[in-house]
Amino acid sequence: MNQRTLSTTPKAMSQRLLPGVPSLASALLVLAITATVAACATTPPPTEQIAVSTAAVSHAAAAGSSVGAPAELSMARDKLRRANLAMATADYDTALRLAQQAQVDALVAEATTEAGKARKSAQEVQNASRALREEMSRKAP
User: Fold this and answer.
1) Which terminal residue of the chain has fewer beta carbons within 10 Å of its beta carbon, N or C?
2) pLDDT of residue 83
């Protein structure tokens, strides 16, 4: 084997890839390109998070959040829509972030709706209790 086929040092590779460019600069360029490609490939499509967020928004809507917490539900739907658009353009970091936010917004909408229902139920119980006390006081001798 000759010397040329065995020279696989970074300096030798950079001199072969970019002749005439100083070896440190070309090595840094190769490293930067490799890091960029690796960074782009690290975030997988957040399909599972999109599905979870979609289910959370649907569940919040079914719980009556369109009446009990319309602003929160609207924000959740908007973020889920934007997450799906980001998925379509392969912007997976943005899609993941928006899907997570949509899930949280949907949970807040549902909790707000349930809290409103609980307040209404508590008020009805208090009203019924007051009416019962009044009725009992009228019949007392």
Assistant:
1) C
2) 97
